TrEMBL record:
Leader peptide range in chain numbering: none
Protein name: histidine kinase
Family matches, as PANTHER family: C4-DICARBOXYLATE TRANSPORT SENSOR PROTEIN DCTB (PTHR43065:SF46), SENSOR HISTIDINE KINASE (PTHR43065)
Keyword tags: ATP-binding, Kinase, Nucleotide-binding, Phosphoprotein, Transferase, Two-component regulatory system
Histidine kinase domain ranges (all copies): 453-675
Ranges annotated as spanning the membrane: none
Domain PAC, chain residue ranges per copy: 258-310, 388-440
Classification via Pfam families: GAF, HATPase_c, HisKA, PAS, PAS_3, Response_reg
């Protein structure tokens, strides 16, 4: 008795391997079925095979049906495992003496309906591996039993059925192999002809080479031209490839296998590329005796590869970021410029990348923070109309938002069906910033013209009111008039002063410019503010002793400082520190590239900083607009900063503002100096600050700042590595830790801020030298509190001299400590 294996998938696979299901009746099987019915004296006998969902009869006596559902088949019970923990199947004869009294079959439609089965006996048909394919069974319409001789005969017949199945399978395989071999030979020759492929046989011991006739089409020569030796064949090979081919053949005698690409020169002097593959055979003592191989023409492939390389080079040389999307929105190509713009490497963009919770390569999930309707709309329009162009707001790998001018083109396959989408992106982030700045300037100019006209009319209205009120004061002496008229005069004067501020913003006050020392203005402001400001505000000044002079109007510059100080006071309702500092600054090309309003030359910088509430990021772009104020109604006109920017621009200067919520605000006023110093002297001073080839790591999320800082340092004998965020900085530092002398690090970056980056770098190297950069001075204090790793602080924007001086100071301190 065989044990049946309880693996349904393997059982079905074994059944299919016999290729017998749904085949025509065959006499050897029918003879065994008739013999079973005769021996057991039953009206019905079947060879039943159990498929996944049905019972199919290969042979049947006394039954018209060809198959039944598997779930009602008696045969299914005969081959299935018992419902027990041991899962041992029954391989003996499965007998049901009376189906109506058996609870398993009493309600079975094969029992209660035609053919009204009452008796069943089946022997499983078991393969040599132990899988039951079905049964040889006998069936009767009345209850009954089988004697032992009938059971043994039924088992013997079942064994004969399996023998027939095995013989049938073996014969089918033999026929298949014979037919396949003949067809393979035919197909091989057809394939050789179609693929421009030929075979060769090299007898290494005799050095004789046998060629197939296909070589004639490959080389354009008759077989007799090749000769019968390997050396004769080499004469057809391109002279530059002969030595490499010989070396490859020599290596194959040791490595057993041979594969090499080479060129041949045809009789018409055309050059073709061939590839040859072969296998070495050895004798009993391990000596190479023979090599068999094939050779075929790959000229077309080589030409295509060359064309692809040229096209890829052109794409990579393009300044535009080029992407190709497949029909599912996945990136299938990413140019070098696209890698530089978005920060994703080609392998990251094309291959699946892990994002903690999901795996994706869809372009909209890679380049947008979330699924984008803009992207979907562009994709739909391109698919429908063939092209689309417009602006898209995308994200880089570091999380920085950029704006691109995007042009989409639909590419079709040979059947004119959508194949892919070519996307050409041009970075217009800086252009859009310039446009926004221009629009703000135009808006301010328009508001200025409007304000100027209104102010002019108000002056015409207020002048007679003020003159009349002052005249009435000399003519009306009653107590009531004397009490009301001063109120009228004072309010008319306030209106006139307000109009004066509007005119100052709109067209600038044509004051008299003289050579000024701003130190005196700052000290005067300090004296006034010390007396009038609340005691909770600490006032501090830091003025360079040899501060340069400026050409300007003292009254107007006094108003600039006063307005900035009043705003700083209002920003510190609970008290704080107000600081005014002044220093000299040479703006070079490095600095000018970091600040769009700056021009190369000599400036003084007046900084007014507070430790107040800070300015929300969403309104910082609007603070210089006239009549824009965050103060409560009646507490501000919104003209203070508008007047500041108007006066400073009237002095050919510019203003930068830096703010951080909860930490304070810093206004820097840049005024051109009247000093006539020579710029050449400035650059001569820089020569003494040059480096000694030290490697500096520059970390900043602004690409323009990274690039100009890198160029400036390299111009003065430093080597530079760059990183766009803290994560990239850590990876770069870990790789070049032994070489990097100092890290120049921005304090405010996406993904990983400067403070976290500093602490992590200090864990890698406690002696690391870090120079922090920020537009906000308060970050200098924060950076220094992180520990001894922070050696200096650079306030953005900075010039080349400040950069080199800072690096030299850090280097000098390090040398003294050693």
């Amino acid at each position: 008795m065989k044990t049946l294996l309880n693996n349904e998938a393997a059982r079905l696979e074994a059944l299919l391997s016999y290729q017998i299901l749904d085949t025509e009746p065959e006499e050897p099987f029918d003879a065994l079925t008739r013999l079973a019915a005769y021996i057991c004296q039953t009206p019905i006998a079947l060879i039943s095979l159990i498929d996944a969902n049905r019972q199919w009869f290969k042979s049947k006596i006394g039954l018209h049906a060809t198959q039944t559902p598997r779930n009602i088949a008696f045969c299914n019970h005969a081959i299935c495992a018992k419902r027990s923990s041991e899962a041992i199947a029954q391989s003996d004869v499965f007998i049901v003496t009376d189906a109506l009294t058996d609870e398993r079959f009493a309600t079975n439609p094969l029992v209660t309906c035609d053919p009204y089965i009452r008796f069943y006996a089946g022997v499983p048909l078991i393969t040599s591996q132990g899988y039951a394919l079905g049964t040889l069974c006998v069936i009767d319409y009345v209850p009954r039993e089988l004697d032992s001789q009938q059971i043994e005969a039924l088992q013997a017949l079942a064994s004969q059925v399996m023998t027939q199945l095995e013989q049938r399978c073996t014969f089918a395989q033999l026929v298949y192999r014979t037919t396949t071999h003949r067809r393979n030979e035919e197909r091989l020759q057809l394939a050789l002809n179609a693929a421009q492929m030929a075979c060769w046989d090299w007898d290494i011991q005799t050095n004789k080479v046998t060629w197939t006739k296909d070589h004639e089409s490959l080389f354009g020569l008759a077989l007799s031209s090749f000769g019968s030796t390997y050396e004769a064949f080499l004469q057809c090979v391109h002279p530059q490839d002969r030595k490499l081919l010989e070396q490859a053949m020599a290596r194959s005698l040791e490595e057993r296998y041979y594969e090499h690409e080479f060129r041949v020169v045809l009789p018409d002097n055309s050059i073709h590329w061939l590839v040859s593959k072969g296998e070495v055979f050895f004798n009993d003592i391990g000596k190479a005796t023979r090599m068999l191989g094939v050779v075929w023409d790959i000229t077309a492939r080589k030409q295509q590869e060359q064309q692809i390389r040229e096209e890829a080079t052109l794409l990579n040389e393009s300044q535009d970021a080029i992407l190709v999307l497949d029909t599912n929105g996945h990136i299938s190509f990413c140019s070098k410029s696209a890698e530089d713009l978005f920060g994703w490497s080609q392998s990251e963009a094309i291959s699946p990348w892990l994002d903690a919770t999901r795996i994706t390569t869809k372009a909209d999930e890679l380049l947008f923070e979330q699924a984008s309707s803009e992207f979907a709309q562009a994709q739909n329009i391109t698919t429908e109309h063939g092209s689309w162009h417009g602006e898209l707001h995308l994200l880089t790998k570091s999380g920085k938002e950029i704006i691109v001018q995007s042009r989409w083109t639909l590419l079709l396959d040979e059947e004119q069906k959508p194949k892919s989408i070519l996307i050409v992106n041009t970075d217009i982030t800086d252009k859009k910033k310039l446009e926004a700045q221009l629009l703000r300037t135009q808006r301010l100019e328009s508001i200025g013209r409007l304000s100027s006209g209104i102010a002019h009319d108000l002056n015409n209205i207020l002048t007679p009111i003020l003159l009349t009120a002052q005249l009435l004061q000399t003519q009306l002496y009653d107590q009531r008039s004397q009490r009301l008229l001063p109120i009228l005069v004072n309010n008319a004067k306030r209106g006139a002063n307000l109009v004066k501020q509007v005119l100052s913003f709109a067209r600038g006050i044509e004051g008299k410019h003289t050579i000024l020392q701003t130190r005196h203005l700052i000290l005067e402001i300090q004296q006034i503010l010390t007396e009038v400001f609340p005691k909770s505000i600490e006032f501090d000044t830091d003025i360079l002793p040899d501060l340069w002079t400026v050409s300007g109007d003292a009254t107007q510059l006094h108003q600039v400082l006063m307005n900035l100080c009043i705003n700083a006071c209002d920003a510190m309702p609970e008290g704080g520190t107000l600081n005014i500092s002044a220093e000299n600054l040479v703006i070079d090309e490095h600095y000018a590239l970091m600040n769009i309003d700056a021009k190369v030359g000599y400036y003084i910088v007046i900084t007014v900083s507070d430790t107040g509430l800070g300015i929300p990021p969403e309104i910082i772009e609007r603070i210089f607009e006239p009549f824009f104020t965050t103060k409560e109604l009646g507490l501000g006109t919104g003209l203070g900063l508008s007047t500041v920017i108007g006066i400073v621009k009237n002095h050919a200067g510019f203003v930068n503002v830096y703010s951080e919520m909860g930490k304070g605000t810093e206004f820097k006023v840049y005024l051109p100096s009247s000093e006539k110093s020579e710029m050449q002297q400035h650059f001569q001073d820089l020569e003494g600050l040059a480096g000694d080839g030290e490697l500096i790591l520059v970390v900043d999320d602004e690409a323009a700042i990274r690039e100009i800082t890198k160029l400036s340092l390299e111009a003065y004998n430093y080597r530079v590595l760059t990183a766009s965020d803290g994560v990239e900085a850590l990876a770069t530092y870990a790789q070049h830790q032994q070489e990097i002398s100092a890290v120049l690090l921005d304090m405010m970056m996406p993904n990983m801020d400067g403070l976290t980056t500093i602490r992590t770098l200090q864990k890698i190297n406690s002696c690391i030298k870090i120079i922090t950069m920020s537009g906000l001075v308060s970050n200098a204090r924060i950076a220094k509190e992180t520990g001894i790793g922070v050696k200096a602080f650079l306030s953005k924007p900075f010039n080349t001299k400040e950069l080199l001086q800072t690096l030299n100071a850090v280097k000098s301190r390090n040398q003294r400590n050693q």
